[in-house]
Amino acid sequence: MAEELVPIFNIQNYLNSFGKQIVAEAKLNLQMAEKGGGELDSSIDFEVFRTDYGISIAFKMADYGTFVDKGVSGNEKIQSFTEWTGMRKSSPYKYTTKQPPVSILELWVKKKGLKGRKSLIKHRKGSDKKKKIKGAGQFITHKSFAFAIAKTIQRKGIKSLSFFQQPFGLGMQTFSSDFLSALKDDILGSLPTKKK
User: Fold this and answer.
1) Quick one: 62 and 115 in the same domain?
2) How does DSSP classify residue 128?
């Protein structure tokens, strides 16, 4: 490990404050989108650690968090997200031939207590348009409902929440000046004091 020339107490404190602020705001964004309180919410965290070159910060969350943050394009509709720099970009993720797993959506449907019904409208051609749809409006199984949701997600994708990108971008707007201030304090604090 490289020899430490300057104590980094103020920098470490600043990065800890920065990390706490980003994590708190990301969790608040999830709650506002009614996605808080779950596995993703509790997985958002950060770590400040020393490297051979000084000190660094890393943010972490459940693997699927990046899909929620940046969205996923469908095979018919492109989804976009607002990057931390403020630029609007197309999602780097896309459904093509595969759809979300029906088994996971089925568990979600059951957990939420959702019920699906057989469609009242069916896309028919010619004289079949006026025929009555057998069983229209009746409840369908959780598995059938989950399959219908999976097909819709495959076509339309998942909208981005930018729940992490937004607070990270706002934090980065003041990061340079605040970080330099902490660095200055560490350097000044490490200088030998003049004896009288």
Assistant:
1) no
2) G
Cα diameter, the chain: 104
Tokens at 169, concatenated: 């971008």
Please check whether residues 127 and 101 belong to one and the same domain: yes
- The pair of structure tokens assigned to 35 is 């996605």
Which residue range(s) make up the domain with 148? Answer: 94-159
Which of 69, 93, 99, 64 lies closest to 81, judged by CA?
A: 69
- For 137-180, the pLDDT digits (tens) are 688 899 999 999 999 999 999 999 999 999 999 988 888 777 77
Beta partners for residue 47, in sequence order: 58
The CA-CA-CA angle for residues 167, 171, 176, to 5°, reads 160
**For the residues 100-125, what does the mean pLDDT come to?**
81
User: How far apart, in whole angstroms, are the C-alpha atoms of residue 30 and residue 164?
Assistant: 9
Report the chain's terminal Cα–Cα distance, integer Å: 37
In a domain, 15, yes or no: yes
Number of domains the chain contains: 2
3-state secondary structure of 127: helix
Instruction: Examine residue 175 and state whether it is found in any structural domain, yes or no.
Output: yes
Same domain? 25 vs 58: yes
Which residues, at least 6 apart from 14, have a Cβ–Cβ distance to it below 8 Å? 178, 179, 181, 182
| Alpha helices by DSSP H, the chain | 9-32, 39-43, 65-70, 102-112, 142-156, 165-190
